[in-house]
Amino acid sequence: MRRDVRILLLGEAQVGKTSLILSLVGEEFPEEVPARAEEITIPADVTPEKVPTHIVDYSESEQTDAELQDEIHKANVVCVVYDVSEEATIEKIRTKWIPLVNGRTGSGPRVPIILVGNKSDLRPGSSMEAVLPIMSQFPEIETCVECSAKHLRNISELFYYAQKAVLHPTAPLYDPETKQLRPKCAQALTRIFRLSDQDLDNCLSDEELNAFQKSCFGHPLAPQALEDVKRVVCKNVPGGVQDDRLTLDGFLFLNTLFIQRGRHETTWAILRRFGYSDMLELTTDYLFPPLHVPAGCSTELNHLGYQFVQQVFEKHDQDGDGALSLEELQNLFSVFPVAPWGPELPHTVRTDSGRLPLHGYLCQWTLVTYLDVQHCLEYLGYLGYPSLCEQESQAQAITVTREKRLDQEKGQTQRNVLMCKVVGAQGVGKSSFLQAFLGHSLGHQDTRPFSQGSPVYAIDTVQVNGQEKYLITSGSHRAAPHLLAPGDAGSCWSRCGSSSQLLALQGPGEELMIALETVAQPAMGAIWGQHGPCGVGFHPTLQEP
Fold it and tell me: Are 78 and 11 contacting, i.e. CB atoms less than 8 angstroms apart?
């Protein structure tokens, strides 16, 4: 939402633009009215929307056309003022002022306009009959307010509606010609509905509606208010309520009704709670909240993060078999612009006959968090973490570990995720090693060669001193010849053992490196198994994450 609002008043001479501004500020009708008022700034604490508001007057006699265009360019909203007792000033709205404001915008966004009928004290009745055709012709007109600067009637309301047109614009949400939500608005609200539908039955129960209401507005609906909402939907939308629960059609209808009744700030409150900008795109601030990761530190999901992603898993595991099928995984990804995990998944984590079990799912989240925490934040944002967990941002689901140097000094580590680099020349069995770590037999292993710039990862859990840790193994072309000499006192040559045996050679705060080479000497130890003969050298090294 914008941090300030700039309102420009335009209109024919003598319609009362300056009087409106001075009456607002002075709370009385001015005895003497200058040709043009100076720019007025209203502090945030005295405005309904709590944002600073700048009000700018215009005088055709004192300003040039270039100055006018500059003011129009800077304005967030334009109030076109007319005299309700002078029909000629109403006609100028159509023929002069609106073309002047938006005539050069083409197909781009248009400046919102508020029509202001001043001097209502001089005319009995209303001018709305003459204004309605103009409002129908120009969709950028948000509303029309009749007021009297002399009698201080509707002055505050005029500037409230001008603020509202900027902070809660109608144009991105609603098409007045079709009387329907715009496609991007319907798409955003559909995503919000799916995130709020915790049991995936395509309906919102009373419990789900109240959780949604509390997240967006801070408090649940009263029982009678819930029944009133459903009654209105039942009356207007066939299938809007099923088994006493609100459907997607009913949810979209309610937001359409809010907008049609001038309560579009309600729909904007929902959209902004779930991270949407005025252009109905998820904002950068929402997807990538600040998270400082000092050098030598790594990132892990904390208990809040694991709890949330596990709840997402259980929500989409519709058959309750403890694993996500391809269809269930696609359903989980339906709230993302594109699927975040690709075909490499079975070669990265443990899977089960093409399905993703909870263990492999948590491993994948752990891997993403460790390797690219910004992507993790983004994914948690798409899943609605801040809204559904009532947290300020998804950064609260992340733990930044202690610096590696401090772990080394203290001789212990609090990290739950450790990295092991597997290096060696092409053809020595790095791919087989990584896939064997996931329990894949030779016939089911990924045999794709490593590319020079793209390491391949595999992640699983291991037991270290009675504690479960996540171990990431990473394969690359790095040969590390100094690690391959069996006589090197800093190396330890061993048979392939369990993952916990590998970690036994790791010091606090260190990362493990495994160097592979084809065995040429029996002294290096021959290991015959599903990978064929190979010698494995284990050497603790201090590699940056």
Answer: no
Strands 299-301 and 356-357, sheet pairing: unpaired
Q: List, in order, residues 6 or more apart from 232 with CB less than 8 Å away.
A: 254, 257
DSSP string, 252-289: HHHHHHHHHTT-HHHHHHHHHHTTB-TTSSB-HHHHS-
For residue range 499-539, what is the model confidence (pLDDT) as tens digits? 333 433 344 444 566 655 544 333 323 322 333 333 333 33
* pLDDT given at position 517: 54
Between the alpha carbon of residue 378 and those of residues 31, 350, 393, the distances in Å are: 58, 24, 11
CA end-to-end span of the chain: 37
What would the two tokens of residue 438 be?
A: 């996931």
Three-state DSSP class for residue 370: helix
Query: Is pLDDT of 485 > 50?
Result: no
Longest alpha-carbon distance in the chain: 108
Is the CB of residue 71 less than 8 Å from the CB of residue 82? no
Whole-prediction pTM: 0.81
- Asked whether 19 and 30 are in contact (CB, 8 A), the reply is yes
Main-chain phi, psi angles of 294, to 5 degrees: -65, 160
* Backbone CA torsion sign across 352, 355, 356, 359: negative
